[in-house]
Write a structure and sequence with these properties.
535 residues, alpha+beta, Tetrahydropterin Synthase, Chain A, 7-stranded mixed beta sheet, 4-stranded mixed beta sheet, 26 strands, flat
Length: 535
């Protein structure tokens, strides 16, 4: 049975779809072309087809055969191996505190007289890479990792630009070639070392020590005692490699005196370079090492020779001349170096060495003079001691007199105090007696007044009671009525009376018992009332 064209086309389409999905997408793309780039890696592609690159060109352009400029970064990529070669490389890593200097191997040539390249130009790039990870084709770029410029505390950085237009002054402005006017303060700086050179200059105190080494030869002496000489180091001269307390020690300064003797002095120089003067000083003399070697040390030697040659050997041992030399040496050093913008804080001559044939006799004479002075002082001391003993005796005698006088004054003072105390006591007792007398008088007057008041009260009370009785009698009608009323008030509520019949019209009570209860007069009055004829 012959199939229809539609069925053939459908079957063909299904086969092609199967081949595309299974063979191309499933096998070719995901197995053959699949390129997995791990972290911090990159893939450099090299085109296998295309036209050849021009002579001298290292990076292929569009449609050219060769290394492509842009690498592929971390991730999954699908690359036809028949068209491109795949090269796995490390990405460029710039660590903390570092920077990357980029050298472009591909690009246009630099302008005449210029050695730093701009983007797209071949050569050392002016811009540097900061800390981080970069995908830079190693065929096109060379990366050199260097430390950042660090200026430590106590230092400043003097910058010298290596590119730019020429300056017309000693110090260059920004964009000009030469030592810049501004300095770098302590810290980290991102500066291309190919574009700038930085000199770290210490701006604190710097010290130069020039001294002889240990014990001097027999022909010379320090003018000190033999004991101090034995404490010095073994014989031998110091050189610049030896140090004292970490400070390099240079050979001592030597010069002839005015009378032809060789004088050796130990010198310590403290100096400093101010930050604002660092660019001009560095541009003129160089770094600290050059300043010390070419300026300071020669200046110390020349000043010592010039000033020291005007003094005799003896002047360096005794007298005011030695101080005069120290003063002249200090002032000359300060003035000369100040003109060079170097500040001197101290130029000290620590020790002076002269030959023994000069210092020996002088030392002996000084010792003899010192002994004379000592003996004189001893004599004066004995005299002072005798005066002191005499004074101490006088002081003891005066102390006894003072003690006796003190006791006498103390006795007089005690007697006077007792007298005053007795007088005060007597006055106090007299005052108390006077107060007692006044109190007695006041108390008598009080009692008299109280007696008079009490008598007056009794008088008024009696009068009031009499007036009260008179009013009561008047109210009762008569004295007899008042008495009867009072008698009736005194009788009990229930009284027993015995009545005795004495005849017709006569009624008597028990007179014997009644006599115990009321006065007879009152009974009579009652009887009269009872016997009175009734109306």
């Amino acid at each position: 049975m012959k199939k229809s064209p539609l069925a053939v086309l459908t079957a063909t389409a299904a086969v092609l779809l199967f081949l595309y999905l299974f063979v191309y997408e499933g096998i070719w793309v995901w197995i053959v072309e699949n390129t997995d780039v791990p972290p911090n890696k990159m893939v450099i592609l090299v085109a296998k087809t295309g036209k050849a690159m021009p002579a001298g060109q290292i990076i292929a352009g569009p449609g050219e055969k060769g290394v492509l400029l842009e690498p592929l970064g971390t991730g999954r990529h699908f690359i036809n191996p028949f068209l491109f070669e795949r090269q796995l490389r490390e990405q460029v890593l710039v660590g903390p505190g570092e920077l990357g200097v980029v050298i472009n191997k591909n690009g246009t040539d630099l302008p005449p007289g210029e050695f730093l390249a701009q983007p797209g130009q071949r050569g050392i790039q002016r811009e540097v890479l900061l800390p981080g990870t970069y995908k830079l084709n190693p065929y096109a770029y060379e990366i050199r990792t260097v430390k950042m410029t660090e200026i430590e505390p106590g230092h400043v950085g003097v910058i010298a630009a290596r590119s730019g237009k020429a300056t017309q002054n000693q110090l260059a402005e920004p964009g000009e070639r030469g030592v810049q006017k501004t300095v770098l303060q302590p810290g980290l700086y991102v500066l291309n070392p190919e574009a700038y050179s930085v000199e770290s200059i210490e701006v604190g105190f710097n010290q130069i020590t020039m001294a002889h080494g240990g014990k001097l030869p027999e022909t010379q002496t320090t003018g000190q005692t033999e004991l101090n000489r034995e404490k010095k180091a073994p014989s031998g001269s110091l050189n610049a490699s030896q140090t004292q307390s970490g400070v390099p020690v240079l050979p001592a300064v030597r010069f002839p005196s005015s009378d032809g003797f060789e004088i050796t002095i130990d010198v310590t120089l403290l100096w400093q370079l101010l930050p604002q003067d660092a660019p001009s000083v560095v541009s003129r003399y160089g770094n600290i090492r050059k300043i010390e070697g070419n300026i300071l040390i020669p200046q110390i030697n020349s000043t010592a020779r010039i000033k020291g040659s005007t003094f005799g050997a003896v002047n360096f041992i005794v007298g005011d001349k030695r101080e005069e030399f120290q003063r002249a040496f200090q002032e000359t050093i300060e003035t000369t170096l100040k003109e060079k913008k170097l500040q001197v804080d101290l130029a000290l001559v620590q020790d002076t060495l002269v030959p023994d044939d000069i210092s020996g006799p002088i030392q002996d004479s000084r010792i003899a003079a010192e002994w004379n002075i000592t003996n004189t002082e001893k004599t004066k001391t004995e005299a002072k001691k005798a005066q002191l003993d005499e004074s101490m005796g006088k002081i003891a005698q005066i102390e006894q007199v003072v003690e006796f006088e003190t006791q006498r004054l103390e006795g007089n003072l005690v007697a006077e105090q007792e007298k005053q105390v007795n007088q005060i006591g007597a006055e106090a007792r007299l005052k108390v007696a006077e107060l007692a007398s006044e109190t007695a008088i006041m108390r008598a007057n009080t009692n008299r007044k109280i007696g008079s008041a009490e008598a007056k009260v009794l008088e008024l009370k009696g009068k009031a009671e009499g007036d009260g009785y008179a009013l009561q009698v008047q109210a009762a009608g008569s004295a007899a009525d008042y008495n009867a009323l009072q008698f009736a008030k005194q009788l009990p509520e229930r009284i027993r009376l015995s009545l005795i019949y004495a005849g017709s019209g006569t009624l008597w009570t028990d007179l014997d018992k009644a006599s115990q209860l009321a006065p007879l007069e009152l009974l009579k009055q009652v009887k009269q009332v009872e016997l009175a004829p009734k109306k």
